[in-house]
Amino acid sequence: MHKKTQEITDLLIKAAEKARKETSGEPEPGLTSPINWPIDCVVGPGLEGAIACESKIGYVNGTKGWLIYRGYDIFDLCINSTYEEVSYLLLHGELPTEVQLKVYKKKLTQCFNVPETLRTLLSFSIEKMHPMAILRLGLNMLRQEFTKADQADHKPSADSSIATDADTIAMEFAPRGEEHAIFEFKKKKREEEEAAAGINSCYRLIGGAAAITAAMNRIRSGHFPIEADPELSFAANFLFMMTGKKPSVEEERIMDISLILHADHGMNASTFAAMVVASTLSDIYFSIGSGAAALSGPLHGGANEQVIHMLKEIGSVENVKPWFVKARKDKRKISGFGHRVYKAYDPRARILGPLAKHLAKQNKEFGPLFKIAKELEKEVVSSFGKEKKIFPNVDFYSGIVYHALGIPAEMFTPIFTVSRVAGWTARVNEYLENNRIFRPRAMYIGPFNKKYLNGNL
Ligand code: CMC
User: Is 130 designated active site?
Assistant: First the structure.
């Protein structure tokens, strides 16, 4: 292994040892047992505590601060794995074999190629729009004729598709021959095609999200989009297509770790949004577009961008304390802190924090911002840690890491999105295996028996 990437791996091993010492224990039985519907559970506002389904994809233990993908601990995945392996794991349930990985990598690289979608997006005022708005549109435009929903009997025609990537349309062909023979053959063939089209849509969304995000960054910085290099890994290609320069091994490794860390996280708001849309048997492109829309908010994935604005607003280490005192007085939410599920230190922040520190040591320009962040963490944790169980979350240090890699703040949430497409598609597919349309109720607390009077108009 390269010396620079070994240094990073050593940091991760140290972070893992510390986390394991502080967070050992057993999984929560109440959140890791098969369900016998219907169940009783205590539900708070914002569906806090509600259990909506079973899943084998991932587990977040909020009291201990664990994150598990398909049985693997997030620290082990970051130390040993790559985003290609992890996204495959999430989608297929097992880590790929060498051959499977080779095929998958090739497919993902092909999926970076979305010329029609990019051409259509270029007709929008990209420079004036937030990249998340463009990415959301782009995810819908990746829609092709043959999607997951098209597998049901309401297959739309190519004309009714929003846009199609001509170069990447999955070709549907009906075998010709005798009526009876065709039926048997066609049935089998169609099942295979449909399964392939479903998973290919997931791959297309993962590769397409990266290509769109990278192209947006190029255009926003006054350059033309560039094509992927088939020799590079997903993380290196993503950085390459975004910046136009081949990343160093260290930059590639850091982006890879960040993509692994953001790939899935339970039934959070964006995952739920994607699942709700999919549960209506709408198609997977609309579903993932809805996930992106939900993720963009400042209470969710949009927080990473807000963190950088906030640290710049604070301006100096000396100003942290007075700034925080005022923020508390104003009851301001501090971006990058707190979590609905974690009431312990977010394991993703345990990894990204040391990475940010590592980058701060190397980059003098970025050092002061990191020091402000560390000081703010100290203030927030000493005030809120014990009392309210508020600690840094993934978004606190991810923005700082991307900033140190020279990526503009508006691109932070799109990068988060690129990674999370893997978790969204995996969970949507899993839910659709036993689909039931989501349909909670609201408590009506409005009036009854109001008289309609013309005089009211
Ligand atoms: N700064 C200050 N106080 C906070 C914060 C914060 N960041 N987060 C929670 N609190 C307080 C909150 O004011 C409330 O206090 P009180 O009981 O006195 O009214 C208590 O903690 C419980 O907070 P809540 O808002 O009811 O918690 P929630 O589970 O509804 O919200 C959250 C979770 C993530 C939306 C919230 O912590 C927050 O707004 N954080 C800042 C935004 C952020 O960093 N979001 C990223 C979340 S992690 C990654 C992701 O999802 O993308």
Answer: no
